Structure formats: structure tokens, C-alpha cells
Amino acid sequence: MFLRIITTALLLGSLNCELYAQNSVTLNVNLYPIQTLVVNPSQKVVNLEYNTREDYSNGIVSEQQDHLTIYSTGGFQVKVSTETAAADNGLLDNITVIPTSGSNPLNQSHVVYTNKKINQDEQPIISATKGAINKNVNISYKGAGNDALIEFAKSSTAVNHTYTVVYTIVSQ
């Protein structure tokens, strides 16, 4: 009887081992590059107001804090250009875009900021060798001084020159 119990236990134990099964699955994690660039919604209109003699003489600066928010999975460039009016006559040659660190800045050891005059050609103003997650950049729009814009003003009425400034982010 004892022998039957031992034999039965051994048989059931070996059956239990035979009932064990294993299988596998392949898990692919696909990471795609992403670049997004957002202009602060409350700063979609920027004005350079020349109201006084000093404005024409010294120039005007409109500082836009945290104007751009950048998300990029790898190195990138931010470029600036404009859609100019046919009758621009060189006014944009007197406007400079100046990027600086925002409140949540890019890693300073991996970024280069470059001031650029606005024109129709895309020009890099920010170059970064590493990615950025929701990093901010301040942009200052600087209008020339030295009376450079006098020739674009009329003596009797205010003149408004409107341009669409375009920021583009590309991977590098």
C-alpha cells in the first residue's frame, strides 16, 4: 500500500511537470522623432511703436518673455523667416530677432542663440545638439535706431507695416 501511494505521488508529480508550458512575445518599442514649436498664444501680435524722436533715434525693443516653447526628441534648429509684402522696400532689413533663455531654459552647454535680421529666407536663430522638453525661449524684436526708419514714415498719418513672422523647427 505504501508503495502504491509513493508510485501515485511520483506519477502525479511527473504529470504536473509535463503540464507546464511556456511561450514568448516580441515587444517592439518604436521611438519616432518629434519636434513641436509653439508661439505663446497671448503674444501672437507684436508691435514696434515709433512714437517719439528718441524712438527713431534709439530704436525700439519689444521683449516677449517665453515667446516660444520647444519640444524635441533630439538636436534641432529653430529658424525665422517672414512672408514679406511686395512693397517692403527694405524695412525688414531694420528689424532684428534676438533669442535668449526663457524661464525654463534650454541646456546652455548644448545651445547657440544667434541674432538675425528678418527676411524671406529661413535663418537659424537657435541651434541645439540635444533635445528639449517644453523649454522656453524669449524673443526680442528690435527695430533699428539711427533714424533708419524715418524714410518709411509719412509726415501726415501713421503708417502700419504688417508682416507674418514664421518660426520653423527642424531636426539636426
Automatic annotation (TrEMBL):
Tell me where the signal peptide lies: 1-21
Task: Report the protein name in the record.
Answer: MBG domain-containing protein
The organism of origin for this protein: Paenimyroides ummariense
Keyword terms, alphabetized: Signal
